[in-house]
Amino acid sequence: MLPYSDDRDFPEIESRSVKKPVVTVRELPEPLLDSDEAASIMKIHPKTLQKLARKGIVRGVHIGKLWRFRLSEIERWIDHQMAS
Fold it and tell me: What is the CB-side half-sphere exposure of residue 14 using CA atoms within 13 A?
């Protein structure tokens, strides 16, 4: 039988710790809003928002039959409207 030993006998064991990657908020992708959510923030009808997106006035992503919008893009449009 081996004599009892503690962690001091194996210093490499002490340094082994599971480190989880640190993810900051800036690294997370910005969630996409659907037409209803984005239009609600803009206080316009979803169809109006879709027309603005088709014309390139508001940037959005057309995925199949659905439109998706970044909140930052919606806020940019609102800021532009207030400045006009």
Answer: 6
Give the other-Cβ count within 10 Å of 77's Cβ.
Answer: 20
Q: Can you read off the two tokens belonging to residue 9?
A: 């006998």
Residue carrying structure tokens 């039959």: 65
* pTM, full prediction: 0.66
Q: Can you tell me the distance from the alpha carbon of 79 to that of 16, in angstroms, rounded to the nearest whole number? A: 51
Would you tell me how many other CB atoms lie within 10 Å of the CB of residue 1? 3
Three-state SS at 8: helix
Residue-wise DSSP of 11-79: HHHHH----PPP--GGGSPPPEEEHHHHHHHHTS-HHHHHHHHHHTSS--EEETTEEEEEHHHHHHHHH
pLDDT digits (tens, 9 = 90+) for 29-70: 889 999 999 999 999 999 999 999 999 999 999 999 999 999
